[in-house]
Amino acid sequence: MLWLHLLVNGLVWGCALGMVAVSFSLVFATTKIFHVAHAAVYGLGGYLAWSALKHGMPEWAALLVGIVACAITGTLIQKLLYERLDRRGATHLVILIASLGLSAVMQNAVAAVYTSNVLQFGLPWAARTTAIGGVLLTTAQMLTVVAGILSYLGAMWFAHRTVLGKRMRAVASNPFLAEITRLQPRQVHIAVMAIASAMVAIPGVLVPLDLGLQPFGGVPILLTATIAMIAGGVGSISGAFLVAVGIAVLQNLSLLVIPGEWSIGITFGIFVIFMLFRPRGLFAG
């Protein structure tokens, strides 16, 4: 039943990847900024939660520290970097380069403080396994699935049921009209950046419970999440999440027929072929 184990592991990883894809999609659809530094924010949440645990805080409080700190970090990035560049007429390419530079600075700062070695949370309960349908899942993996589904549902509710969510969709649809109708796009950008940064902190803590912390571990995750966002349709929360799950499952099941080092390449190859026929994404309107 190797295929079943790979399938379930793909679903677990897909839920984590989906949280990153949805949060990145919220930022990009609203601000039109390719927020590469999102990868560094992802990693920062895990390291700050690890530090909180080492200082004797309970697990739930450590997770909260990571979430709040990432929300504050995202707010500062938007307010002090992206907004200032935008006010000075910087192009999207300039902002992208600035985001790349910020990501490198943040990740190297984390490596300088915590070293480049893999750090483990060392929580016995996180590695405790439970048999579900003949497949063993760790507690950390089950929490990842629950958190991923709840984050997706929460993002859908936020976007469609709250005043801020409706403002966000209006700004994403027509920034100029949103400006002249006093929807205050800059305030919306800050709020969305804070929410997305808080969301990405959740997988930033849960994934390292199994795999450990690495300063540059967020880069390949963000790359795959970006592919999911584009293939799902820019601005589509459901598209980003579902395609992220699909990519993760595909990568895991491909291990049945090809070596592991080829799985990512095959996945991206399929993505390129897919985009040739559906360039706007699977769930684009």
Task: Kindly summarize this structure in a few lines.
The protein is mainly α and 285 residues long.
Describe this structure in words.
The protein has eleven helices and two strands; from the N terminus they run ααααββααααααα. It has one domain (2-277): ABC transporter involved in vitamin B12 uptake, BtuC, CATH 1.10.3470. The protein is 76% helix and 3% strand. The chain starts with a helix and ends in an 8-residue tail after the last helix. The mean pLDDT is 90. It has a two-stranded antiparallel ribbon with strand order 1-2. The longest helix has 30 residues, at 2-31. Strand 1 (129-132) and strand 2 (135-138) form a beta hairpin. With 285 residues, the protein is an all-alpha fold.
How many distinct beta strands? 2
> Which CATH top level class fits?
Mainly Alpha
What's the end-to-end separation, in Å?
A: 39 Å
**What is the CATH architecture term?**
Orthogonal Bundle
Low-confidence stretches: none
How big a fraction of the residues is strand? under 5%
Q: CATH fold name, please?
A: ABC transporter involved in vitamin B12 uptake, BtuC
Question: Could you spell the SSE succession in H and E letters?
Answer: HHHHEEHHHHHHH
- Rg over CA atoms, rounded to whole Å, is 19 Å
Number of helices: 11
Give the biggest sheet.
2 strands, antiparallel
Number of domains: 1
Helix % is over 70%
Estimate the mean pLDDT confidence. Answer: 90
Strand order of the largest sheet: 1-2
The helix/strand class is mainly alpha
Q: Which shape, going by the Cα principal axes?
A: globular
